Every structure is written in structure tokens, then in C-alpha cells.
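EI: anyone free to look at a 187-residue chain?
SC: sure, send it
EI:
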Amino acid sequence: MKTTFAKTEFFLMPNGELWFTQPGNSMMRFEQSNSDLIDYMLTLISDLYPAAFDALSNEYKDSKLNVPYFKFRVVSRFIRCNFAEHDALTFDIEEDGHISIEEVSCPLRGECKYEGVICKPQLKTKLSDREKEVAKLIAKGLDRSAVAEELRISPCTVNRHIANIKCRLHISKTTEIVAWVKDYKIE
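SC: here you go
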């Protein structure tokens, strides 16, 4: 899966500002105006790390009336807690849409009530019913556009489901989804 945010690296500047970069692009400050990236990250957080999403939503509930600001605060905190180390070995959002949680240095490590929830969150590994449907159709040999047509959803949504399936199952190839469906006899 290729996303417009593939190969994204987030990092904190010495002054505490959050920035990001992608190959071929200059560094950009992470701001509320980055709404596409914020929406993309918010979807990943809510789909893959629902406990982190719930904790962040509760932490920033005072901002919920200003939806863009609320989304920015939730995503910014998640990034700061999980990606803000400048890492040359892996991207925070990899080419296939996977995200790579990092060990981020934090002065509250070991004391923060959100450690293991927002910081170093637990991945929800159980596939949703829709993700199982997508997996079954992929295993039947349908391509992404045919899956989208069959389920009456957009191809972008199919891509997101496939990326989520790969992340939840800790696999990297679509062919591995086919093997998983056959191994577990998903009907």
C-alpha cells in the first residue's frame, strides 16, 4: 500500500517543536494545518490502538468543541510519545503504511500514568469483521478495486483495511493474508 504519508519521519527539534520529513521533501513543522496527515494518523490510532485513542480523547476532551485543534492535540501527543526520536534506520510511517513505534526518551518514563497506553501502546491484534471480509475476498483472488466494488467501499478504505490487517497480523505481504485465511479457515 502506498500512501501519501509513506516514508514519513517525525522528530522533535531542540526547542520542542514537532517536525516531519519525507524523502524528496524538505522538513516541515507539524501544525494544525496538516489536516490530511492528522486525519490519516487519527484513523491509524483509533483503528490499531483504541486504548491509546480513548485515553487521548479523554485527556484532551476540553478541546472537543474545536475539532481541528482536538485532532491536532491527540495526534501530536501520540507522535511525541511514540515517534519523536529522529531515526535513520526505519521510518515512523513505512512505505507500506505500517507504523513503527519507537522507544522515546521521556523524563516521565516509569512514572507516567499513560505508559503502555499512549506511550508504547498495545496494538489491537483482533481483526474487525470488515477486515475479515476484506481478507476473505483477497484470498478468493479479488484485487483491491474488485474488493472495493464488492463491499461498496472506496479503494482507499480497502487499502487502509489491508494495511491494518498486515499490521495486526505482523505480516508485510498481501500473499500472507491469503495464507492466513487458509491457515485459520476463515469462512
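EI: DSSP finds seven helices and three strands in the chain.
SC: 👍
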